[in-house]
């Protein structure tokens, strides 16, 4: 366990892209896990405020029959306050004025103060505004992260497992097995990925999140399998593989124990890349109506914003909030993937990462010198 923690610390030490990316992804994961505790409202909960006095309300009520100076002053003092119940609203006005409001005036005050929570702009009560249905956008973003991340990580896991099985097995087995698996990879690569996903999703109708995750996972493994096969071929004839075969280890044990750990960096990159693609593909499928619109995800938020003409009516927050959230999450995955490349790919030794590589190189050289001295003293 200590060695595992040390390897994680070494990975992040001096690796700014990985630190930033992991921080972004970790924040989204925490928001998704603790959504009921963090979100100010439920995902589909409407704003309970039904009566609110605004400047427009005061203009309509000014000078009408029965309106006294005391009532006008009280209404002006209550401007911006929200009330869930009509009787509570009117009782508050009567209490503060100290007079009983005539019934016709009560009806006019209640009618002109009727509050529509739809497309309310960002405020202290709703930090990112509300949707056309009066639902809190921030709460929907937090709850939507649960499904969007589930689809992304689920599709990433499915695609990565298939890519590892196909790529590493093809490289190690060789012969007819290699030819068959490479043929399958080429077939999947030739078929356009996005149209294939659209056809499968349309065939299923309103595909749920689990169906979308499976569709994306089983259609996005071929490129990763080709890369893993190429890398595994380069270590197929290494001494440790030959030694494992010589002592009689089974083929599957050699693949899992000897070969897979040597391509772990590519496997991690495949998982991150597939996850990023899955989140974007899921949002795209739901935006064009191929997902389940009753489930709150970042994609369905974009769908309802488009259906409600959010940008046309000036409710820009309903459209931009999920779009920016998807961009930030995608940027976090891209930075994490970049950090993995910096550590695993010697071709990227330049720039701000040069110091990290020099430090690692110096540490290795010092260990070799120390070992040589110990061997010399023992001799």
Please, could you describe this protein's structure?
This protein has two domains: 15-39 and 133-342, MetI-like fold (Orthogonal Bundle), CATH 1.10.3720.10; 51-112. It is built from 18 helices and two strands. The protein is mainly alpha-helical and 379 residues long. Strands 1-2 form a two-stranded antiparallel sheet.
> What gyration radius follows from the Cα positions, in whole Å?
30 Å
Biggest sheet, open or closed, and with what strands and sense? 2 strands, antiparallel
Query: And the CATH topology of the largest domain?
Result: MetI-like fold
Distance between the termini: 34 Å
Q: What CATH first level of the largest domain would be assigned?
A: Mainly Alpha
Q: Topology, pairings included?
A:
Layout: H1 2-12, H2 16-33, H3 35-38, E1 51-52, H4 55-61, H5 69-77, E2 82-83, H6 86-97, H7 103-112, H8 137-173, H9 175-190, H10 193-204, H11 209-218, H12 222-235, H13 239-246, H14 251-259, H15 264-287, H16 298-307, H17 316-344, H18 354-378
Antiparallel strand pairs: 1-2
Explain briefly what this protein structure is.
This protein is an all-alpha fold and 379 residues long. The chain folds into two domains: 15-39 and 133-342, MetI-like fold, CATH 1.10.3720.10; 51-112. 70% of the residues lie in helices and 1% in strands.
Summary tags:
379 residues; mainly alpha; MetI-like fold; two-stranded antiparallel ribbon; 18 helices; 2 strands; 1% strand; elongated
């Amino acid at each position: 366990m200590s060695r595992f923690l040390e390897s994680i610390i070494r990975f992040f030490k001096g690796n700014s892209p990985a630190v930033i990316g992991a921080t972004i992804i970790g924040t989204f994961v925490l928001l998704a896990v603790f959504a009921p505790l963090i979100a100010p409202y439920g995902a589909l909960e409407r704003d309970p405020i039904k009566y609110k006095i605004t400047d427009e309300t005061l203009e309509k009520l000014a000078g009408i029959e029965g309106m006294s100076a005391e009532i006008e002053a009280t209404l002006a003092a209550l401007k911006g306050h929200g009330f869930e119940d009509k009787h509570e609203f009117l009782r508050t006005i009567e209490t503060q004025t100290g007079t009983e409001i005539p019934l016709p005036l009560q009806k006019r005050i209640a009618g002109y103060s009727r509050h529509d929570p739809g497309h309310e702009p960002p405020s202290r009560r709703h930090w990112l505004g509300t949707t056309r249905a009066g639902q809190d956008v921030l709460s929907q973003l937090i709850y939507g992260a649960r499904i969007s991340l589930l689809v992304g990580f689920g599709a990433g896991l499915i695609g990565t497992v298939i890519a590892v099985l196909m790529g590493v097995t093809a490289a190690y087995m060789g012969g007819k097995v290699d030819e068959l698996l490479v043929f399958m990879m080429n077939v999947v690569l030739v078929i356009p990925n996005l149209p294939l996903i659209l056809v499968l999703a349309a065939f299923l109708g309103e595909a749920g999140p689990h169906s979308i995750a499976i569709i994306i996972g089983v259609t996005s493994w071929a490129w990763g399998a080709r890369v893993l096969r190429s890398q595994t071929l380069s270590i197929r004839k290494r001494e440790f593989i030959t030694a494992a075969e010589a002592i009689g280890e089974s083929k599957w044990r050699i693949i899992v124990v000897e070969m897979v750990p040597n391509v772990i960096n590519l496997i991690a990159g495949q998982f991150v890349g597939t996850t990023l693609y899955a989140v974007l593909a899921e949002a795209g499928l739901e935006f064009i109506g191929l997902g389940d619109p009753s489930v709150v995800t970042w994609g369905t938020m974009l769908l309802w914003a488009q259906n409600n003409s959010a940008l046309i009516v000036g409710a820009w927050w309903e459209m931009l909030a999920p779009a920016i959230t998807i961009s930030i999450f995608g940027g976090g995955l891209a930075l994490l993937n970049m950090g993995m490349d910096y550590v695993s790919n010697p071709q990227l030794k330049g720039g701000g990462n040069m110091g990290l590589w020099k430090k690692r190189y110096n540490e290795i050289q010092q260990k070799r010198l120390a070992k040589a001295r110990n061997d010399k003293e023992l001799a």
